[in-house]
UniProtKB/TrEMBL annotation:
Sorted UniProt keywords: Signal
Residue ranges of the region described as Disordered: 185-209
Signal peptide location: 1-23
MF annotations from Gene Ontology: single-stranded DNA binding
One Gene Ontology CC term in the entry: Shu complex
Lineage: superkingdom: Eukaryota
Transmembrane region(s): none
Biased composition (Polar residues): 200-209
Annotated source species: Chlamydomonas incerta
UniProt record, GO biological process: double-strand break repair via homologous recombination
Designated name of the protein: Uncharacterized protein
Length: 209
């Protein structure tokens, strides 16, 4: 698998087969000296968010040789399996670096966020495959609290391991993202930053405060 490129955009689309013009544009992107570590992936339904999340995890695993933690709902991911990156087949050894952890709801993610600093394993990336598929509630505070706990947990994990392990969280739609961005939680850190929704997934840096 091709693992060239270090920017957030490159690590998201490294598994795609791009047209020459698009590939040239991506290659011309400047290197990020302060790469975003907490990333919110925004896009409408059926815009390949889950596949991009998988590509992101596999890219970081292949580049570092460390496993990537992929958090998902078992039934959902089995009903709509993300596509493998271009030039990656089922025999690719990098797939062995993908550590799946099934979660049932937002409480599982919140508990994980509170315990991330105690993880002994060194991960190359932590990816939540479908945030709003896990947080099955219309309570915006629950969604924001879950995001904030994950971001705070990742900051503690990085400090404990002295690493730059990124966190990627794809909400289902831009409307879900607007819930995250519309109000700051009363505790924890701001869990997301604004991104304009279009027909393609976008990334937004999640700024701490």
């Amino acid at each position: 698998m091709n693992t060239a490129g270090t920017s957030v955009m490159k690590s998201l689309i490294v598994g795609m087969q791009l047209q020459p013009a698009a590939a040239a544009a991506v290659n011309s992107l400047p290197a990020e000296t302060d790469a975003a570590l907490d990333v919110l992936l925004v896009g409408p339904h059926a815009s390949a968010r889950s596949s991009l999340a998988l590509h992101f995890a596999l890219h970081h695993a292949a580049e570092s040789g460390l496993p990537a933690l992929f958090l998902c709902v078992q039934d959902a991911v089995e009903q709509a399996v993300p596509l493998l990156p271009y030039m990656c087949d089922t025999n690719d050894p990098d797939l062995g670096l993908l550590h799946l952890k099934y979660v049932r709801g937002h409480l599982d993610l919140q508990r994980l966020g509170c315990c991330l600093h105690m993880l002994q394993a060194a991960y190359s990336a932590v990816v939540v495959e479908d945030m709003s598929g896990v947080v099955k509630t219309d309570d915006r505070n629950t969604l924001i609290r879950t995001l904030a706990l994950l971001v705070d947990g990742m900051q503690a994990y990085r400090a404990a391991h002295q690493s730059r392990c990124p966190l990627l969280e794809p909400p289902v739609t831009a409307a879900t993202a607007s819930v995250c961005l519309g109000r700051r939680p009363r505790h924890g850190r701001q869990a997301a930053a604004a991104a304009r929704p279009t027909g393609r997934p976008q990334t937004a840096r999640q700024q701490g405060r």
